[in-house]
Amino acid sequence: MKVLIVGGGGREHAIAYSVSKSRKVSKIYCAPGNAGIGMIAECVPIGAMEFDKIAAFAKEKEIDLTIVAMDDPLVGGLVDRLEEAGLRAFGPRKNAAILEGSKAFSKDLMKKYNIPTAAYENFDDPKAALAYLETADFPIVLKADGLALGKGVLICQDLDEAKTGVKEIMEDKKFGSAGNRLVIEEFMTGREVSVLSFVDGKNIRIMTSAQDHKRAGDGDTGLNTGGMGTFSPSPFYTEEVDSFCRKYIYQPTVDAMLAEGREFKGVIFFGLMLTEKGPRVLEYNARFGDPEAQVVLPRMKNDIIEVMEACIDGTLDQIDLEFEDNAAVCVVLASDGYPVKYEKGFVIQGLEKFEGQDSYFCFHAGTAKTEKGIVTNGGRVLGVTAKGDDLKEARKNAYAATEWITFENKYMRHDIGKAIDEA
């Protein structure tokens, strides 16, 4: 098979790595890709939102499967565009990707189908939102309705902070058109857990659990980012939690989308909060998480192409997902100043130390190949992932491997997976 992956970050590198292990695949392309992906795939200079160019390329190269990995092209309808061209694509169609594309839609869906989540209200008018806040309990959560690179969520401690947040999101358009609508949500406390799943429209198969670290600084301080590191599995995701979620969250979500005429095929990411009252849905994503994919996929035993084809064909019930009985930790190496302002173009040293390893991985997020060598080309630069027999060993291995890499402006958190010690 010839496979095209759409995207160019750490998630796409992790997917490309998994695809490269498939016995079914002879050639991998990636649009646009990055320097790391270029080591295992042919990178094509086409942007993820250039739908016509992607479809034309897939036709020309007789691509057997296109994997749409990013939120923007999924929500924008790239899968629909490819299918209209008679091409096979993995990922939800536009009418199903709204599960991530609109937080207001997903909250309303959960309310309608009794899927446990935080209490909330949706607003189109900033004045109505401000009036509601006058009667609200604090802290409270403000969420831009649309896609905002994982950063469109504000936790406000008091009324003044919340008023400023409404202004930033709805009037100043800090997150662009994503802030045309606003979700105001009850603040939940507990452990966060990320659970990825494969879905074929009717059936769902749950992957191993993970936990992300969103804040830029140690101790969960600083600004929200796209993710500074992850670990898998989560020791807080017990059999009891799993049983509850399967019954009241996972399958009910798939059934709800089908009942709404929005058959979902692809990956659903469940962002969960383990509250005192039980698990609650924080958010849905319509694709692999990043960097969650970087700790989940290296542990998956299945041929990823077989699983993806089962999702497309509606035969996922015939697949048993299997994961290694071990653990993985990913530490993101970023450019100092991320997620606000940072410099690019610094040469990266030490990448060769990961070659030939089967327990250590270096997934490229923001890199580029130049005459000087591979250089930094983004806020999140690399995801250093390591396996271990258990989480503590994996964490120790991952941090040891971060020392193999050097570049000017290198920044990372030093407490990824610290919660493991409390489990």
Number of domains: 4
Radius of gyration, whole Å: 21 Å
Low-pLDDT windows of residues: none
CATH class of the largest domain: Alpha Beta
Number of DSSP helical runs: 12
* Average pLDDT number: 96
The amount of beta strand, in percent, is 25-35%
What's the overall geometry? globular
Tell me about the largest β-sheet.
9 strands, antiparallel
The helix content is: 25-40%
CATH superfamily of the largest domain: ATP-grasp fold, B domain
Task: List how many beta strands DSSP finds.
Answer: 22
What is the end-to-end distance?
Answer: 43 Å
CATH architecture tag of the largest domain:
2-Layer Sandwich
The CATH topology name of the largest domain reads: D-amino Acid Aminotransferase, Chain A, domain 1
Structural class of the helix and strand makeup?
A: alpha+beta
Catalytic activity: 5-phospho-beta-D-ribosylamine + glycine + ATP = N(1)-(5-phospho-beta-D-ribosyl)glycinamide + ADP + phosphate + H(+)
Pathway: Purine metabolism; IMP biosynthesis via de novo pathway; N(1)-(5-phospho-D-ribosyl)glycinamide from 5-phospho-alpha-D-ribose 1-diphosphate: step 2/2
Cofactor: Mg(2+); Mn(2+)
Protein name: Phosphoribosylamine--glycine ligase
